[in-house]
Amino acid sequence: MAKEKKSNQLSNKYGASMEKIVSLAKRRGFVYPSSEIYGGLSATWDYGPLGVELKKNIQEIWWREMTRLQDNIVGLDAAIMMHPKTWEASGHVENFSDPLVDCKQCKTRFREDKLSAEVIASKKCPECGGELTEPRQFNLMFSTHLGPVADSGSIVYLRPETAQGIFVNFKNVVDTSRVQIPFGIAQIGKAFRNEITTKNFIFRTCEFEQMEMQFFVKPGTDDKWFEYWKEQRMNYYVNQLGVLPENLHFHQHGPDELAHYAKDAYDVEYHYPFGWEEQEGIHNRTDFDLGRHGEYCGKEINYLDPQTNERYIPYVIETSAGLTRSVLVCLMDAYHEETIGEDKQGKPDVRTVLHLHPNVAPIKAAVLPLVKKDGLADLAKDIQKELNLEFNTFYDQSGAIGRRYRRQDEVGTPFCITVDYDSKDNHDVTIRFRDSMEQIRVPREGLAARLKDEMKKYKRV
């Protein structure tokens, strides 16, 4: 087989502009603009064949880490629409709003808290210099009507977060699951926020998915558990999703940033092309949520310690991550362009590759017959069927083998399995590694187990 040219000299750093990620996502089937045939709908996106696999992989990794590998965390799937008093108790009706200003001249809309002090003082539009309106509060919750008549008594909200479904089910979980404090309740689901400004692709959208875990602890132990979950969640991004540690850091909320319910709060921030921004929040919510829901429903929500007979309202340590935002982090962090030699015209041969951790890669292995004749295609199909029992694979027999490798590099497939004429006689195949482009010969028998071993010992280059 022809060997690929290799170079240790990289043409640029890891990462990519947003334009390159958007182009790759559309071209390779990760993310499409929603309703595109009708001109699209602002800030809404559809996840294509590779995007849905990437998203499901991240979701399954998070669920495994937060529930199956934990003895004291259980799962929940609460309804999207909840009783309206839920959002009064949580503070969302009163506090979940942004200050909004408009330019009287160009009609551009801004969040006042995102404008500079100079712009606010001058009341001049940063786009055209026109006069800005006075700020007004804009509630971020979507409202709709439940029932046959649309009136004030039928208003419900699409949940702006999944956490409240956990809090209102606290007693149900305690009574039915035999859990004891400290314990957590985890949930993955859609949330909706009528954002004033939606930008940067899938970073900020009106419809998104959250992965939240609320961990209930005895008051006085909350600081210890807060530090514990900070460490666990940072390690998750590096060890499970393969994000480069230099692209992550903690940001502590200052007094002016703290939410109304929080005693302390840190964000895991990722270094996007547009700056450091939140990927996950770790919050000490104290006893605010259970206390407020008890007040509003008229039934005290507390916990009876079976060891001490002490009754108290638990404190809550929250970990709240964006699933759809995690997709963007994985794509951006993995994207790389590297020069691996020259093409036939003497120009730099640039390889585009996604260095996705095998845990999250949409396709774990591509099976490629060297040619599609002489029984190699049939043999390759048989191998693919065997591998499909263990993980998602892809079959490709179209074009030169080098081009097929490059296509798989661009979508982050960690392994290519090449079937050639020797495979018919010797019952072995070639594994080609995405990151190093190294090729090794291995027996066909036990191929799935070999690939699993390679995935376990994977290290980000």
How many β-strand runs?
Answer: 23
Provide the CATH top-level class of the domain at 28-80 and 160-330.
Answer: Alpha Beta
CATH superfamily membership of the domain at 28-80 and 160-330:
Bira Bifunctional Protein, Domain 2
If you average the pLDDT, what whole number results?
Answer: 90
CATH topology of the domain at 28-80 and 160-330: BirA Bifunctional Protein, domain 2
The whole-angstrom Rg is: 26 Å
Sum up the overall morphology in one term.
globular
Distance between the termini: 25 Å
Kindly state the percentage of residues in helix. Answer: 25-40%
Q: Segments where pLDDT lies below 50 for 5+ residues?
A: 6-13
Q: Which sequence of strands runs across the widest sheet? A: 3-9-10-16-13-12-11
Largest sheet: 7 strands, mixed
- Portion in strands: 25-35%
Total count of helical runs of at least 4 residues: 14
Structural class: alpha+beta
The CATH architecture of the domain at 28-80 and 160-330 can be named as: 2-Layer Sandwich
Name the features.
461 residues; alpha+beta; BirA Bifunctional Protein, domain 2; Rossmann fold; 7-stranded mixed sheet; 23 strands; 28% strand
Question: Can you characterise this structure?
Answer:
Substrate binds at residues 111, 161, 208-212, 318-322. This is Glycine--tRNA ligase. One of its GO terms (cellular component) is cytoplasm. With 461 residues, this protein is of the alpha+beta class. Among the domains are: 28-80 and 160-330, Bira Bifunctional Protein, Domain 2 (BirA Bifunctional Protein, domain 2); 363-456, Rossmann fold (3-Layer(aba) Sandwich). The chain has 14 helices and 23 strands. It has helices spanning 18-28, 49-68, 84-90, 92-95, 117-122, 163-168, 170-177, 222-239, 288-297, 323-334, 376-388, 401-411, 421-426, 447-456, and strands spanning 31-33, 45-47, 73-75, 97-102, 109-111, 136-139, 142-145, 155-158, 183-192, 207-217, 248-252, 264-272, 275-286, 303-304, 311-312, 315-322, 335-342, 348-354, 365-369, 393-395, 415-419, 428-433, 439-443. The protein has a seven-stranded mixed beta sheet with strand order 3-9-10-16-13-12-11, sandwiched between helices. It has a five-stranded mixed beta sheet with strand order 20-19-21-22-23, sandwiched between helices. A three-stranded antiparallel beta sheet has the order 5-4-6. The two termini are 25 Å apart. Mean pLDDT is 90; it is low at 6-13.
